[in-house]
Design goal:
Strand order of the largest sheet: 1-5-6-11-10-9-7-8
Helix content: 25-40%
Structural class: alpha+beta
Radius of gyration: 27 Å
Distance between the termini: 45 Å
Bound molecules: adenosine monophosphate
CATH architecture of the largest domain: 2-Layer Sandwich
Shape: elongated
Mean pLDDT: 92
Oligomer: single chain
Number of helices: 15
CATH superfamily of the largest domain: Bira Bifunctional Protein, Domain 2
Low-confidence stretches: none
CATH topology of the largest domain: BirA Bifunctional Protein, domain 2
Number of strands: 16
């Protein structure tokens, strides 16, 4: 038997409906903020992620699915959505005549070679927004509030924005020096990767999955003490605006994000979920340097991404009452050839008029069709019989009250419209 690859999943039935539900909420929130939907390729030139996400990140170093295609090009299955959107922005020279920022949202499959566990897969779905072309803190707040409002609309309580800043380049350079000074004498206590990171990118040490519980990481210098005046003012302004907009946040100066391209605001969305504790549902931040790093002009941007899997896990564990539409409006029953022809006509008519309509596709007996109805639980049954059809009528049964009536075919849609 061929089974699905490790860390992937098949999504169907109620799980698929939950995803559709989350998707609908996300789309409707994005519409209100005037973000436009974008699709970018699932694979991109490997170089995009090496340059964009960063060589020292786990995502690029250890987790990418990289392969050569038949034309000997090195391609990588996307591990995240931002780099692709930025590539699109640069490739289409959308920076040419900026009078308005570019605001887009995406959702799609991402790929990371991680150790699978609850809420962590090798193929997973992310939703994200990117706000390109504004350095104003209102853009940061816009993105944070999309995330915050979405989770509230999804019915998750106890959602907090965990906030930190990485400051500007000048602040980060000073912080980097402080980290090198602090970690240098402790180098032997760090994992092998972090020993390398101390030379290449000491900030990454703070984000190490192996060393993260170590006391020496917790006691490491904090970025807030190394921010220059502008960066600190900016950070304080962000907090002020979050308060103004009633967005629940807490500061965490040890927060670093798993990608290299952030500066200034970084944040994660954490939910306190029964049975799971505090879990990160999504995260994002400002990435003012990325567009230039990928060959475009110096244009500021901010974005965030969230995972569907963890969001749904959190909703399940929080017993969120989903208003899922998984019921059928009408089930059409038939036996004879003429009844079947009418069934085909009615299926078309009802579906075109917006009713969720089912029928029998297996030439079942009437008795067996009644069995199917028990499982599908439609609101109405249309029971066709040749006698009724001669008078252009059908038998319509309310499946809840069990009341039956004969109704003219011409009046069927009107009747169902008023009663469903
Ligand atoms: P990141 O891009 O790492 O900041 O992740 C943003 C969000 O995507 C996380 O908070 C998760 O909800 C989700 N996510 C990241 N990696 C995975 C994964 N391997 N499996 C499922 N969801 C993930």
């Amino acid at each position: 038997m061929i089974t699905k690859p490790k860390g992937t999943m098949d999504v169907y039935g109620i799980d698929a409906k939950k995803r559709e539900y989350v998707n609908e909420i996300l789309r409707s929130v994005c519409n209100k903020y005037n973000y436009n939907y974008i699709e970018t390729p699932i694979f991109e030139a490997s170089e995009l992620y090496h340059r964009g996400v960063g060589e020292d990140t786990d995502i690029v170093n250890k987790e990418t699915y990289t392969f050569k295609d038949r034309g000997d090009r090195s391609l990588t299955l996307r591990p995240e959505g931002t780099a692709g959107v930025v590539r699109w922005f640069i490739e289409n020279k959308l920076y040419g005549n900026i009078t308005e920022p570019t605001k887009v949202f995406y959702n799609g499959k991402m790929y990371r070679y991680e150790r699978p566990q609850a809420g962590r897969y090798r193929e997973f779905t992310q939703f994200g927004v990117e706000f390109i072309g504004s350095d104003d803190i209102l853009a940061d707040i816009d993105v944070i509030s999309v995330a915050y409002n979405t989770y509230n609309l999804l019915g998750l309580k106890n959602v907090t924005i965990v906030l930190n800043t990485l400051g500007d380049q000048d602040s980060r350079d000073k912080y980097r020096d402080a980290l090198i000074k602090y970690f240098n004498p402790l180098i032997n206590s760090l994992c092998e990767d972090c020993q390398k990171r101390l030379k290449s990118n000491p900030l990454r040490i703070l984000d190490c999955k192996i060393d993260s519980d170590q006391d020496l990481l917790k006691k490491a210098p904090k970025i807030i003490d190394y921010l220059n005046k502008e960066s600190l003012t900016r950070y304080n302004n962000i907090k002020e605006y979050l308060e103004l907009m009633d967005i629940n946040y807490q500061e965490d100066f040890s927060l670093v994000r798993g990608l290299d391209y952030y500066d200034h605001t970084i944040f994660e969305i954490i939910a306190d979920v029964p049975g799971l504790g505090n879990i990160a549902l999504g995260g994002g931040g400002r990435y003012n340097g990325l567009i230039e790093k990928l060959g475009g002009p110096n244009i500021p941007a901010v974005g965030f991404a969230m995972g569907y899997d963890r969001t749904i896990l959190a909703m399940d564990n929080s017993n969120v009452n989903l208003k899922l539409r998984d019921d059928i409006d009408v089930y059409i029953m038939y036996v004879s050839k003429t009844e079947k022809e009418t069934a085909a006509y009615l299926l078309q008519d009802l579906r075109l008029n917006g009713f969720i309509t089912e029928t029998d596709y297996l030439n079942k007996s009437l008795k067996a069709q009644f069995k199917s109805i028990e499982r599908l639980n439609p609101k109405y049954l249309i029971i066709l019989n040749d006698q009724d059809l001669k008078e252009n009528k059908v038998t319509l049964k309310d499946n809840l009250t069990k009341e039956e009536q004969k109704i003219e075919i011409n009046n069927l849609i009107d009747y169902l419209d008023t009663n469903i």
